[in-house]
């Protein structure tokens, strides 16, 4: 087991993104309503459903790639799916960070940075 740290980070990212995607998918209206208020004073105010759909798709892709990456690491020490899962995770987090900064939600942006650090570590380790 040379890949324990990478597997743990990929599991962390998979749980984070798949749970978030599940929440967006099954509580769509609640999320859209809350985000419309969150982005009311930003250029995204009229694009909330589209932006949320984009984030949902990226979160699901990230989570699925991270799970497949874990399986690949366990089966044959392959790193390709895990690497792409980590990269998609970083892209998703950067989009979320951009939105939080645009909304001037600096505490929310700071929280995203906490997730971004292990995602970048995974990109580095799986590269």
TrEMBL record:
Transmembrane segments: 51-74, 81-102, 108-126
Keywords recorded for this protein, A-Z: Membrane, Transmembrane, Transmembrane helix
Domain of life according to the entry: Bacteria
Keyword Transmembrane helix found: yes
Protein name: DoxX protein
Species, as recorded: Flavobacterium frigoris
């Amino acid at each position: 087991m040379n890949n324990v740290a990478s597997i743990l980070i990929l599991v962390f990212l998979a749980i984070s993104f798949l749970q978030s995607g599940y929440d967006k998918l099954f509580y769509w209206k609640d999320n859209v309503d809350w985000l419309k208020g969150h982005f009311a004073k930003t250029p995204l105010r009229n694009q909330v459903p589209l932006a949320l759909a984009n984030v949902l798709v990226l979160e699901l892709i990230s989570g699925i790639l991270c799970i497949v990456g874990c399986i690949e690491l366990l089966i044959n020490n392959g790193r390709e799916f895990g690497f792409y899962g980590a990269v998609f995770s970083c892209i998703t987090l950067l989009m979320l960070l951009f939105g939080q900064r645009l909304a001037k939600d600096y505490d929310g942006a700071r929280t995203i940075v906490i997730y971004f650090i292990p995602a970048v570590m995974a990109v580095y380790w799986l590269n």
